Fold this protein.
Amino acid sequence: MSAAQTAAPHLKVRARRLAVRFRPTRFVLNVILGLIALFWLVPTLSLLIISLRPASSFGVTGWWTVFTAPTQLTLHNYQSLFSTGFASGGILDSAITTALITVPATVLVTVLSSLAAYSLVFGRWRGRTGVFLVIVALLVVPVQVALIPVAQLYNAFGHVSGFNPFGTLPGVIIFHVAFGLPFGIFLMRNFYTGIPKDLLEAGRIDGAGEWTLFRRVVLPLGLPAAASLAIFQFIWVWNDLLVGLVFLGGNQHHTLTIYLYGFTRTLANNYWVIATGGIISILIPLAIFFSFQRYFVRGVLAGAVK
Amino acid sequence: MATVSRRRSLVLRRAVAMPPPEMGGASVDATGLVELGKPPGGGWRSHLGSILFLAPAAIWLALIVGYPLVGTIRDSFLDNASTGFVGLANYKTVFSTADILITFRNNVIWVVVAPFLLTFLGLVFAVLTERIRWSTAFKTVVFMPIAFSMTASGLVWNSIMNIDPHIGMLNATLQTVSDWVSPPGLYPVNTSAGQTVSSLAATGLKAGSGGMLESTAAVAPGGTITLGMIGISPATLQLVGAQTAEVPSPAAGAVSGLVWRDFSPSHPTTRGRVYPDEDGIAGLSLNLLSSDGSSVGTTQTDAHGDFRFAGVKAGSYRVEVGSGNFSSGFTGIYWLSGTQSITPTSGLSQTAQALLSIPLVDMSMIIAYLWIWAGFAMVIIGAGLAAINREVLEAARIDGATEWQTFRRVTMPMLAPVLIVVFVTMTINVLKIFDIIVNMAPSVSQANTLATELYNVGFASVPSANGTASAIAVLLFILVMPVIYINLRRMRS
């Protein structure tokens, strides 16, 4: 046995990998996966191309004809959608409404979850285990379970206080935050348990209060997890249809998904709106996806339990 | 996307290959649900501050998740206006209303088919991407749809699966293949408008078997025959370049003839005569049939509608206009139809048949669902694969195991926990499926699920039926309870 073989087993692994690399099936594998990747790209591509074709050509020729007649591409659909400006119920108004719901819901969930997780990990009160188990149990509760009672609760609150959250942006935000919290607390708690307790003990001996410890020690250390949580929550709320549909009720301002959903029953006549609006609605999630891929993937993977 | 920069590609690879075990789900399995520490001793007073940190979240959860959970259970025993106690009446309604039973059937189909296919697809992708150099680009492309709303994705697939081959790419692809295998005729019969092949026969033609036309009279070599057809639009004739009909002169040893459009705008009621304002029917495929019915020759009509079978032996023949001339080819599959389904037929009541049938629309929507979530399954399973100890695999290979045996006996068992997590996650996800249904099949009642029915009954209809909707919600909750139990047990251990 040669010295190289005995000394470095990883060389053998590398040799094997090289052997794999030169297999004749390798070419076939690349072709198959290439076709699959193409298949995965086509739906998104079709939406983009339909949004760039004249509205009148929908149903007359297929979108794929652009490859032979690229001159038909136009920005006219975008101009039409934007021409109404910020009128209620239009695409820009819907984008703003979506942002006005998504940003507060994301910030609130991230902050409240971090605080709660701090309490669950570094607090010294009894019953923390019990509270955490309750939160784990709430992780997979479907939103459908709460829709009707929360709507009743909003109406009851309206009777008492004069402000009925049903049909308003706060009403939607409150609901989104509630259903974002179990996962948020779960994620942040799991991250915080990895922070050495000694770090906090040192601070405590020096007389730092809980708020200082949270603000100066735990929060900065937990930023990666907070980023994943924020991105997951942002995408989740941005893409929601059901909660907005129920709790925006008769509100004249819509979210982007409600805007798109409004055209489903008259699809053939309005597909240009759907395609153009669809592209506009996925711009922000796509930008986040490509800018913060690492956090995005972590957040989505962690949020799978939802 | 192919244009992902190298730096970003590396980021995805890193994120995928090295899931931070401290971050809950990224490690996707029990390792995410870390052990609970015992609460250390200590009085309430010293750390009252930290309890207050929990308060906002706790109050929020109690009000908007906890209380409603109880409220829904309460409402499910009240009438539809949530005022009077009705016992189990709402549950009886749920289990006896045909529409709601259909939603159960659809949920069952989704739960049985989608998570299984998704886990399988994720596993295949995860294993295969380990063997290519551009795995990061592949993963990015397949993972990307998760960033889109299910509304946008549903609408994209709604158009892809449109029945019209000018809109739906799926049907356009099938049409291309179908036209290549069996091309449509030049003169397709519009069956949807009630047109039949036999209605085309006007002069000297009758309907034969299998959707073809044949001459009523027999003809011998050296003779001519004129065959008139109606119901062919001038636009079609113009398209194929037809010209004025002309009766050909006979030729010895050949069967000659004319097929023409036996409708003259100047003599609209006269049949059987060839007028100058009548066109020949160009490009028809004709067969010459011998007296025993077998085909002895084929030819095509020219622009004037003329044809000639040359070198025909003596005898008596008929001319056949083959059914291929009238076939309309592929007209599209109605992917999002609730009526096309696999339905058991033998001796079952109508209700039972409906409940046991599998509509095509469910399968079509599951395809869209796979497109959205396969990347998720792939990345999680890929992370699981990366975490498998390479030495164990190497040991198996050194011991003489083949690639397949290694996969089947070593990789798969080690991967099982991850596969189960993907499967369970997708099962929960599918139970609540809503956005895809309402955007892909908005007016197909056969496609409804528990979640869409709950919305229809509780919110979209006036007056809303709170009792029925609450009963559906409670059933939905009962369906996810096993998962709650599993999660809690995993946390405790």
Q: What stands out?
A: Chain B has a mean pLDDT of 83. The first strand of chain B starts at residue 201 and ends at 203.
